[in-house]
Amino acid sequence: MDLKNVKDCIEVYPLGAGQDVGRSCILIKIYDKIIMLDCGLHMGVNDLTRYPDFEKIKQIWNIPEKRKWDQIIDLVLISHFHLDHIGALPYFTEIYNYDGPIYMTSPTKALLPYMCEDFRKVITESQKKEFTDDSIPQTPAQKIINDSRYPLIYTQENIQKCFQKAKINIKIIKQ
């Protein structure tokens, strides 16, 4: 690799946390490979803007709408288990149907389902206070994706499926 031209081959796009705390999600394009660093949510937002704007990825690189996410993102790399770094991962894997490689440390993978489930429960309880029980949708998440009244759209099943996709083959180099 010619390091003189490295600035011409690396592009960085924050989809979240660029100038804010929360919703950490940074795209790094190195030559023709795209890595997503973290996939977090913003816990202080009560609509779909709590998630990174995944559709912007296709706009940035003029990618056709129908292209599958695992044909766009080569790797998702999660830095640690805080919700602002992992909270949108079930949303991305199960709602957007990303099925490519996801890597994280063993402790992060162990805590992912607990952190996401706890957050899901908190939001579900707050929604029950806002809406009557019969107004909470019983339809699949795909049908309510654009309904901002129901911003949390991943389920316990989504969390478990996401957890099963994560890999832990990361070597931590301590200094």
From TrEMBL:
This is Metallo-beta-lactamase domain protein. GO terms for biological process: snRNA processing. InterPro entries: MBL, Metallo-B-lactamas, RibonucZ/Hydroxyglut_hydro. It holds the Pfam family Lactamase_B. GO terms for cellular component: nucleus. GO terms for molecular function: RNA endonuclease activity. It comes from Tetrahymena thermophila (strain SB210). Residues 21-99 form the Metallo-beta-lactamase domain. PANTHER family: CLEAVAGE AND POLYADENYLATION SPECIFICITY FACTOR FAMILY MEMBER, INTEGRATOR COMPLEX SUBUNIT 11.
